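Quiz preparation item.
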């Protein structure tokens, strides 16, 4: 299989992936499926993404280290997913879209929504 080279830097990205690691979140918020769904609706409204189908929020994890809610929301331009870790009160959220959005705006909104004390932001531009 032949390896493809990435397009030149001046080419607009095909999509953006923002991965957020939010620490010391409000435990009540990350343990509430309705609040997680509300976050998705408000985030999509903020960045102009159209939701496709219902937001799925499921609690699972036999191992206490990883137990918590997981969420997935299809959007017309890709998807939003996340996992909320009960043991550490952390949230791990990914937003991928081929429609442009501001990763810093998403990060600030998400940190405020879940009342996190700190956040790590990782942005990947897919070419």
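Solution:
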């Amino acid at each position: 299989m032949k390896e493809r080279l990435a397009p030149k830097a001046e080419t607009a990205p095909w999509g953006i992936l923002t991965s957020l690691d939010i620490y010391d979140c409000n435990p009540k918020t990350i343990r509430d499926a309705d609040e997680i769904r509300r976050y998705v609706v408000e985030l999509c409204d903020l960045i102009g993404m159209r939701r496709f189908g219902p937001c799925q929020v499921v609690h699972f994890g036999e191992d206490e280290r990883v137990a918590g809610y997981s969420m997935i929301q299809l959007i017309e331009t890709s998807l939003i997913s996340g996992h909320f870790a009960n043991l550490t009160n952390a949230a791990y959220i990914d937003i991928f879209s081929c429609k442009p959005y501001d990763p810093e705006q998403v990060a600030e909104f998400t940190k405020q929504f879940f009342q996190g004390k700190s956040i790590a932001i990782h942005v990947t531009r897919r070419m």
